[in-house]
Design brief:
Blueprint: E1 9-11, E2 25-27, E3 37-46, H1 66-73, H2 95-108, H3 115-129, E4 138-141, H4 147-154, E5 161-165, E6 176-177, E7 190-196, H5 205-215, E8 216-227, H6 233-246, H7 260-269, E9 273-286, H8 289-299, H9 315-328, E10 336-348, H10 367-378
Parallel strand pairs: 3-9, 4-5, 4-7, 5-6, 7-8
Antiparallel strand pairs: 1-2, 8-10, 9-10
Length: 379
């Protein structure tokens, strides 16, 4: 087996003032994890005042009128008619609305709100650095910004990267345009395919993973990151609680996300060899719930559920939700927390050089015998 399939690393991030940081985080993504194994690791709290991130996250309500803050939060409501009518399959997400909102965010959003993409792109660079091989032709699929491309090129792992986006507005130069549910490539076209913060809004994740797998050359690598279960759990809870308190029921206002334990199985189902999924938790602190919602709007990350409520939300709903958020999820200094759980996935296109699992019953020693032998050696 070739040695380039290892994806393990030991990271020790520097500690910032007033920030709790674990001593080190170690991820092991061993090739023997062929059953879609998963791991979980928690990352330090990111504070707007301690990072090169949007100044908007530090603005207090007194600096903007409550009407402006309320308007900034309306995007989370998923208003407007579905654009997927007539489709024979029941869709979870409205792809056309998602595209419109991301284009609006590109044109009018705060560029500093892309801190999450910057962080994920940095993690991508660290992961690629552990792969001991060079990729002749790589693709960055539906990453919206050029962060992934710059990371792939600067790391020296590849010299050619093809960008694939849903609209020319997201391209700075040459690239391919495709529907969000389609990967436009001939079989065995790329050595490396990367997708950052996009797959959680795909209606058919298994289908997209299968398309990516077919587009990889034998022994090609796929690396992806998407929002996972637990993302924005605080916002989901307070919106649900506030709407239930103020009305007879509650509508879904935050998108559902896949669990890390299921993602490994999806990779295996798509035909990837050596699939691995792990979870990184990023906690960002804001002055108010409205600052968080402003960032989501600038990211183009507001909900596009087809089952969203068409009934306009009231000012009372948002004000009550903000109050509950401050009561339940604030730190001693009054700032609130927002969780972003990033599910990382990796898988290889099958190749004869890769490690194969041993056939059942082929072991020459039982686990009990191995443990007893190890204890004897320690003595």
């Amino acid at each position: 087996m070739t040695g380039h399939h290892g994806l393990s690393r030991n990271r020790n991030r520097p500690q910032q003032d007033g920030q709790s940081v674990p001593g080190s985080v170690t991820r092991f993504a061993q090739p023997r994890h062929t059953g879609g194994k998963s791991a979980r690791c928690n990352h330090p709290v990111i504070k707007p005042e301690n990072r090169e991130m949007p100044a908007a996250t530090t603005i207090t309500p007194s600096q903007r009128s409550s009407e402006a803050l309320l308007f900034a939060s309306i995007a989370i409501l998923c208003d407007g008619a579905s654009s997927n009518r007539g489709c024979p399959m029941e869709l979870l997400f409205d792809s056309e609305l998602s595209l419109l909102r991301k284009k609006r965010a590109l044109k009018y959003g705060d560029p500093d709100a892309h801190f999450l993409m910057h962080r994920v792109a940095d993690d991508l660079g660290e992961r690629l650095a552990t792969v001991e091989r060079h990729f002749d032709h790589a693709a960055a699929a539906f990453c919206l910004t050029d962060d992934a491309v710059r990371t792939m090129l600067s790391g020296g792992k590849t010299k050619v990267v093809t960008r694939i986006e849903t609209d020319p507005a997201f391209l700075d130069g040459d690239g391919r345009i495709a529907d969000a549910e389609t990967f436009p490539a001939e079989p065995a076209s790329f050595d490396l395919i990367v997708s950052l913060l996009n797959l959680h809004e795909i209606n058919d994740i298994p289908g997209m993973l299968a398309q990516i797998r077919r587009a990889l050359k034998p022994d090609g690598l796929f690396l992806g990151a998407m929002a996972g279960a637990g993302t924005l759990q605080e916002l989901r809870e307070v919106l649900l609680a506030a709407e239930t308190e103020l009305s007879a029921g509650a509508a879904p206002r935050v998108s559902p996300f896949a669990d890390v334990r299921d993602v490994g199985g999806l990779l295996q189902r798509a035909g990837f060899a050596l699939p691995v999924a792990d979870l990184e938790t990023i906690t960002v602190r804001y002055a108010t719930m409205f600052d968080l919602m402003r960032d989501l709007r600038s990211m183009g990350a507001t909900s596009v559920l087809t089952a969203r409520s068409r009934k306009p939300a009231t000012r009372a709903l948002f004000m009550r939700a903000a109050q509950l958020y401050a009561e339940r999820f604030s730190d001693p200094d009054g700032r609130i927390r927002a969780s972003f759980n990033i599910v990382w996935m990796s898988g290889w296109a099958p190749h004869e050089s890769q490690q194969k699992p041993l056939a059942p019953g082929s072991a020459r020693m039982s686990l009990k015998e191995a443990l007893e032998s190890s204890r004897k050696e320690e003595k």
